[in-house]
Write a structure and sequence with these properties.
Layout lengths: L1 H15 L23 E6 L5 H10 L5 H16 L3 H5 L6 E6 L9 E5 L4 H14 L6 E5 L2 E5 L2 H10 L11 H7 L8 E6 H10 L6 H7 E13 L2 E12 L1 H10 L18 E6 L1 H9 L10 H13 L3 E7 L7 E6 L7 H10 L8 E5 L2 E9 L2 E8 L2 E5 L2 H8 L9 H9 L8 E6 H12 L5 H7 L2 E11 L2 E10 L2
Antiparallel strand pairs: 1-2, 1-6, 2-3, 3-5, 4-5, 6-7, 7-8, 8-18, 9-10, 9-16, 10-11, 11-15, 12-13, 13-14, 14-15, 16-17, 17-18
Helix pairs in contact: 1-3, 10-11, 11-12, 12-13
Length: 487
């Protein structure tokens, strides 16, 4: 853990060093010597002058307390490790640091790091100085095919060396690894890979023989890849999972009839929404759960009936969003599209009245719409109504009024559209989550009923928005998180 924390500190300092632009050609990377059998591999850009770290430096400069943070890290490095960044660390850094898991043994502790130092002498002095500061936890290293292989255990370095055989298969030549890495630009801060073959073998090795049949029904995993990349607008994290679904997931997929959709409800929900979750197609998914043999016995009939009703309520596109309200309690509203011919409010009446809760349901009018209210006391309640083809459920009556109003929707908001554009959000997604960070700070302050410390608030200022979405491709699903950072 100490070595991992030290490495993270060095990389953070490299990001904030603000060095000159790099003219070094992109390296082939440690994957050229790493055995193809390893289960996981991470490549980290450690060149302070690379375009990515220069972009990170520009983004960090937008935060008022950037220099204070850098100074604190430098001071910690001096005090804890006895190292000066400019004199000791920076000269020793190479173009990248690779972290390699050799196997899943010892709880995943068989890990080495690889680096090609820019200055070999500076690297050796750096390690010697750090080890002298803490002799009880030394960093060991050994050269292998032009790379310094590092670990806190000689046995782990020896295990890596034993895996590196002359003319043996290496990760760079492995088709799964090449396909996974091709998903993302070479110009990235971090690229990571997990071998699906190694994961599936480990799962099967640790399950009883009869349980492996379930694994086969779920499907196979080819690989998992991830990337972290900075741009002038913010920071993007992508994760891609590739595999083939088994019979269990294939039947579920047929039940949902495909889950990619265009979030059209963004045109209808109020434009001042601070957080918005878009989803779709739960009707088929619920049908798949109902068909589970475990629910076949008569005692589970009420559960199956309830699932069937809920599935009809959320058959099409749905939206869950939060927006500010005059009091301390924010408005939280759920909008669903029930299945064709379903009266959503009437069906919800039957669900709530049949749940043995004895909830009092009062009929009322909200913004000209026939609505239901269940009071909970203390000003809290549950309000729901049919608005057009949708069922609207909210903690405040204003939630029904806001959706029925028909004013400019969230899709017309510049903050929303700019956030989705910066995140590279495709037109069709499997789910989407959006947060207006700047608006959310004020809401959080009101909810806490206490002022946010000035130092925290000014450093939250550059954060504009966050977008997360999932997009499907044949045999793949990609999940992206983008955090927008403004001037």
């Amino acid at each position: 853990m100490r070595r991992a924390a030290a490495c993270a500190g060095l990389l953070t300092l490299a990001a904030l060093a603000g060095g000159c632009g790099s003219t070094t050609a992109a390296p082939a990377g440690g994957s050229s010597i790493v055995p193809a059998s390893v289960p996981a591999y991470i490549a980290i850009d450690s060149d302070p002058g690379s375009p990515q770290w220069q972009t990170v430096d520009d983004l960090a400069s937008r935060f008022p307390d950037k220099q204070k943070g850098v100074d604190e890290i430098r001071s910690s490095l001096r005090n804890d490790a006895g190292l000066d960044f400019e004199k000791d660390v920076k000269p020793a850094l190479g173009p990248e640091i690779d972290v390699v898991w050799l196997d899943f043994a010892a709880g995943g502790a068989d890990v080495v790091a690889l680096m090609q130092p820019a200055d070999q002498g500076a690297f050796e002095r750096l390690v010697a100085k750090g080890n002298a500061k803490d002799p009880s936890s030394k960093l060991l290293y050994e050269s292998v095919d032009g790379w310094e292989v590092m670990s806190d255990r000689q046995s782990t370095i020896d295990k890596f060396k034993a895996l590196v055989t002359p003319n043996g298969p290496v990760l760079a030549d492995d088709p799964a690894f090449s396909q996974a890495m091709s998903e993302y630009s070479d110009d990235a801060l971090v690229k990571a890979y997990v071998s699906g073959r190694a994961v599936m073998n480990e799962v099967r090795a640790n399950l009883p023989p009869d349980a492996t049949k379930l694994v086969d029904k779920i499907g196979s995993l080819d690989w998992v890849a991830a990337s972290v990349r900075a741009s002038s607008d913010g920071v993007r994290v992508d994760t891609t999972v590739r595999g083939e679904p088994g019979s269990l997931l294939r039947s579920q997929s047929k039940a949902t009839k495909g889950s990619s959709f265009e979030p059209s409800l963004a045109n209808d929900i109020p434009g001042d929404a601070l957080a918005y979750l878009a989803f779709h197609g739960a009707d088929g998914a619920v049908a798949g759960v109902k068909g589970n043999p475990a629910l076949a016995s008569p005692e589970f009939r009420p559960v199956k009936d309830l699932l069937g009703k809920v599935g009809r309520l959320v058959a099409g596109e749905g939206a869950l969003y939060v927006r500010p309200a005059p009091g301390r309690v924010p408005e939280v509203t759920l909008v669903t599209e029930p299945s064709a011919g379903t009266d959503g409010a009437a069906l919800l009446d039957r669900i709530l009245s049949g749940a043995s809760l004895h909830l009092p349901i009062h009929r009322t009018q909200v913004a000209g719409v026939e609505s239901r209210t269940i009071p909970f006391g203390g000003g809290f309640g549950l309000h729901y109504a049919n608005v057009g083809r949708n069922l609207v459920v909210s903690d405040l009556a204003a939630g029904i009024a806001g959706f029925a109003d028909g004013g400019p929707g969230l899709a017309k908001s510049g903050t929303y559209s700019d956030a989705l554009s910066a995140a590279g959000t495709p037109k069709q997604v499997q789910e989407l989550f959006y947060v207006d960070v700047r608006g959310g700070v004020d809401l959080a302050q009101r909810l806490s009923n206490a002022p946010i410390p000035a130092s925290v608030k000014r450093n939250l200022g550059p954060l504009k928005s966050a977008v997360e979405y999932a997009a499907g491709r044949p045999s793949e699903i990609q999940v992206t998180l983008f955090v927008g950072i403004g001037q």
